[in-house]
Give the backbone structure.
Amino acid sequence: MTPARVVVILAMLLGIQPVTTDLYLPALPALTASFSAPMPLAQQTLSALLLAFGVSQLVWGPLSDRFGRRPILLIGLAAYLVAAVGSTLAPSMAQLIVWRTLQGAAMGAVVMCARALVRDLYLPKDGAHIMSKGLSGLGALACISAPVGGLLAQYAGWRATLTAVAVFGALTLALVVWRFKETLAIKNPQALQTATLISTWRAILGNPTFLAFSALSAASYGGLFTFLASSSFVFITVLKLSKTQFGMVMFFTSICYVTGTFICRRLLLRFSVQRTTAIAAFVSLTAGTLMGGLVWAGVVNVWAIVLPLGLFMVGHGIHQPCGQSGAVGPFPQSAGAASAMNGFFMMVVAFGIGSWLGVRMDGTVLPLTNGVWFWSAMIALSAWVLVRKYGHPGVITKKAS
């Protein structure tokens, strides 16, 4: 496959995650009212999806190392489409949670393979650069998803947002069927054997480079998910924005994220990944501190949250390409398993945040702002201590021009 085709496919595969979450976020309050369900139960439509997404990758990763990326992608996307249709037709909140859980498990195959194929095709020093291009596409899809979701929710109802998710799944499946070629050159016939699995997981979890970059990517995703899981209630219910206005807030943050991925590529041309993430961590910590500090000082309005959040998303656009490619970089022979474990860590963080927000949403903006502030500090700690010490230049180096 040509590099351009790889980037397009990578963008669609990675983009399935924000499409699955962002498209229906503007409809979450209406969905909750439609089923006369409490807010914590509505939060489970997102947190259960992401928990299944994270856990399933631990299964999909070794399967893809054994059988290849293409068959796992086809199975995952087909299951995703079935679950998306089921979610659209769900007659109750309980059934919607079940379908969204199945959808998350299927999505795990898609995103895991996307991360792994970068390692299949590119050396580590080029992986962050290619990943940033794919994540730029993800950001573009996120830009579209939130406004479209807001319009659909406002004028066609919440089920229309889930229908749009199913349509995207069908398009991605068609793309993989007709345009994707297997990227795993040598399959590992022992990948599913118990002894091999134990040895592989032990090697991955014992690798300090993997742990350092996984801590960075998980902390950055923690800040993002704090925003995603609480944003519709904070902006629509607390700050009284319309669904369309909320969609524009999501559009703005997505634009900031895409900007971060472009900045990431520019920084990687000049600096090592360690230096790049250190610079981005300063941006993230500044954003989190500004957001939290303004609210604690009594400045509570849309702009006091949105502008620092935009700055945080710029940093997120730098941390994710570096963190995800850095975690998988040391494992060319077990990229699927390493990608799976990295994704699992991020989703465990997301599930924990979702559960915490389910009981902490108190009708104020504090759960959102304090959460982002906390994760910005964790980003700085990961980048300035762990990645600086263990993100070895011999494994992950700056992108060659």
